Amino acid sequence: MFSKVGEYLKGELLATTEDYKLLETMNKVTRDRYKEMSGMAQNLVVEMAKLQRIYTDFEPYVQQIDEICDQVDFLEKVAIELDDYSKELETRLKKLTK
């Protein structure tokens, strides 16, 4: 009976030891994965800083483009008004020459 209890306890200890080994392996894999993710996050921070500097460098050009777009819109409105006026003058001239 003592030998059976001894074998049972030995089996339980062996199972517990295997569980701890599995947990240790899982912890190592998790640690390595988090280390990898930390490195990727640090690289992302560096790249974001670069992008922010690039955006800051390009911001004056973007403002100039916006100003040019506003000027083009204004010129388009003026051209439309001028076209409408010239059509009106043409219509008046045709009425006068008839």
UniProtKB/TrEMBL annotation:
Biological process (GO), any one: lysosome localization
Could you list the residue ranges that cross the membrane?
Answer: none
- Tell me where on the tree of life, at the top rank, the source sits: Eukaryota
**One MF term from GO for this chain?**
gamma-tubulin binding
Q: Which GO terms describe its cellular component?
A: BLOC-1 complex; BORC complex; gamma-tubulin complex
Concerning InterPro entries, the annotation shows:
BLOC1_su2
What is the similarity comment for this entry? Belongs to the BLOC1S2 family.
Protein name according to UniProt: Biogenesis of lysosome-related organelles complex 1 subunit 2
Provenance organism:
Rhizophagus irregularis (strain DAOM 181602 / DAOM 197198 / MUCL 43194)
